[in-house]
Records
---
Amino acid sequence: MPETSGSTGRTPETHVIDFRAAEQLLASRDPQGAVKLLDGVIDVHPENTAARLLRARAFFASAQLRPAELEFSLVLEREPDNAFAHFALARTYERQNRPRPARRHFRLAAALDPNPEYLQAARFET
């Protein structure tokens, strides 16, 4: 019998399947469905940064900006050099009409990764 994790009765393999399905749901423009799947994964694996980053993206895509901000911030606490998380957090602040923190994170993203999109958002010359 496979080992289960926690009281959910689900196996670690099931959580991987849920994560992959959440990626597909987000790509198919069903961010709320993705969040539901990821909630279960994160309940059992709260340290999983990839799942938290995907859930942050899903929150952002469904215009749940405060939860997106919290998730992106948590990812950055664990991975302060994650340029994408800085960029996405900046976009979240931008949508909340908070230009000062947005500018800071756009610049951090551009400093960490000279991606043209990050440089343009930070208003650096490409």
---
Amino acid sequence: MTKPGTVSARHTVAVGIPTSGRSEIVSAVVPDLVRQTRKPDQLLICAPTSDDVDMATLADLPFPVRFLQSERGLCRQRNAIIDAIPDIDIVLFLDDDFLLAPTYIVELERLFLQYPSVDVVTGTVLADGATGPGISVDEGLALLCGIPAFAHELSVRETYSGYGCNMAVRMSTVRAGALRFDERLPLYGWLEDLDFSRTVSRFGQVVASPQLLGVHLGTKNGRISGLRLGYSQIANPIYLARKRTMTWRHALIQMARNVAANTSKASRAEPWVDRKGRLRGNLLALRDLCTGHLSPLNICGMN
């Protein structure tokens, strides 16, 4: 288990949010950062076009806000954020539909100061709309209402991977190792958080903290198509296993679980999940695996 170290004076913390085609949710969620007891030193929002973000709704936030333009793709957009903050100590990557408890950033800074061997931290998700129909902004705020500040010592536990909807990274390690998110995982970047976490784990520890609390709304608009996601559910684990950031055992379990869920639920799918599209994508990927044409990049030519 990670041991606390000597607490330094202060770290600079940037919040980085990649987004695409979800201007309304950005305008509804991002202003909630004003409730943080420790404000970010800057906020960076990265999107393919200026139409993806209504910057006017963010003009009065009490910290610097920067808009970055990048080609669409979660990994490309996160890399653009990394490149834009050469002097920042910590970057907190958030999904555009993730709400933070008011003490999240202050506890995050304290954690990185106390644990110098930690390079990736992920928080505790109180509710995750990504696994269901989604959570409204009002519902998410209500879940976070009244959470007290932690008076006890920070605690962490080692984890296999950060969860990309709320994942903080020590930038000195990123710079020293010239680390980047793998842009061969295009668009939604399925499992990009696991790939990056396992890469960083060669330098320092990857941990989760019960003191960093938030709610992932799991907003459905602007998500990747079922066909593309289904293809990625096969192509990406195999790609990561081949590059050794995922074990073959883990990859096979992940693929089997996804194919089984898509097959069993195709005729009685949840209203918010395109199971038939995912299953078709699974089958196309398995066909490409057999013919030697499997690649995560193949989803770029799909609808």
---
Amino acid sequence: MKLTFPPVITLGCLIIQVLLFNLLPLTVDLSLLFGFLLLVGSIGCIALAARELFKNETTIIPDGQPEKLVTTGPFSFSRNPIYLGMAGILISSACFMQSLSALVIPVIFLLIIHKTWIPHEEVKLKEKFGKDWEKYAASTSRWLG
């Protein structure tokens, strides 16, 4: 069942938001709330990825020797969930500071990791796991996908 045209629904919702804000102004700094939610999610992503590595009895150390190719848990949607979580922590920190300039740091972090550590790790994984690695890399995004 269609209520009405989507732009009209949007306008109606916007009017209700303004009314609610004026009648019951429950204010919160959204950048702090977003920063907190991102921080919790990022730490959770790192913890789940670490648990998956430990469960599969392989290294969590970036320069370590992998024993198994882990493709489950957070590794099923990102080949680098720990680095993704680290970037999330840096973005949440910028939100807590409420600083646009601090958002440069997560970008620099991602560039450094993307250009140095990830290629280094992927070479090791390809050498050790061959076709299994190639299949995983073809089906799972390096960051999010």
---
Amino acid sequence: MSADRSCRGKNSRSTQYWILLGIVAALTLLTGMYSLSVGPTVVHRHEYWQAFTQFNNASDAHFVLRELRLPRAVLAGLVGACLATSGALMQGVTRNPLAGPSIMGLSAGGTLCLLIGLLVNPRLGYSAAIGLSLGGAVCGYLTVCSVTLLSRRGMTPAGFALAGAVVSAMFGAITHGLTIYFSLHDEMLYWTVGGVSHVSWAQVFVLLPVCLIGLVVALALSPAVTVLNLGEEIAAGLGQRTTLTRLGATFAVLLLTGGAIAVAGPVGFVGLMVPHFARMFAGVDYRRIIPLSVALGACLTMIADIASRSLVEGREVPLGLFTTLIGAPFFVYLARRRSSARNLDEGE
């Protein structure tokens, strides 16, 4: 009898999860469709369908919809999916709820390296930009690890988060210093904050294969990440190759983060927040956390992009400002909750 109840309970939770995933996916699709209507150019209802079935190059509305707003919506969704997935993998492999691309130095390192590359070669191609972003992300993460090893407590989750915040602030200061010193134009200043303004299909076609490869690797590793999240000893006892899992997850994280930074700049805190929301509904199984993180991350960045175009009349605010305004208080909340839990454990 108890076995039947347990089975029914599992089936019920599984059904609830798939319903939730479907709802979030539908909401993401609807958000992307709504984003096509946001902008200074007025588009009439009949022009939406005509822009994709009877495209007229002489029509401003058709051009804006097909060549500006649609690639922007797609790219915003891809960037959010990449960052959310990389954050979920980092938190699962390191067992650190404070881990994320913007916290662990990956975003800041990739941005700085890419900016230096653009200063050396202003006509840098997108493929080279992704390579520089990957290299910078690696440098940023290795710097965080080095700083953490120098601390008294060693490589603890709190130490990682603190070192990541320091390294990210340092790399960010250097990035903004170079931007000011070389009197870079407004578009570059906008890009260093993070956003998807002035994008085209070229950026989408560059990020799409990178995103797909990273997502496939993440999904393939999700069962192993679930076991590894239970602890190193448990995973090793079950026969898992923990080193191989970590290397594969690191490859996916760097690929996803580097690709997102190369086309959108440092969009902060998406990789920190979204996995937490996904775990609230999906539990501890990363076979469910990662797909839900993909949908939630895409939806969040699309909503933030819509807000960036809508809240200030006549002007556009960088997407990264909105995600940072939401994510910074969330990071403080997580840090305080983790500190309170640690103090409670020590008191007992």
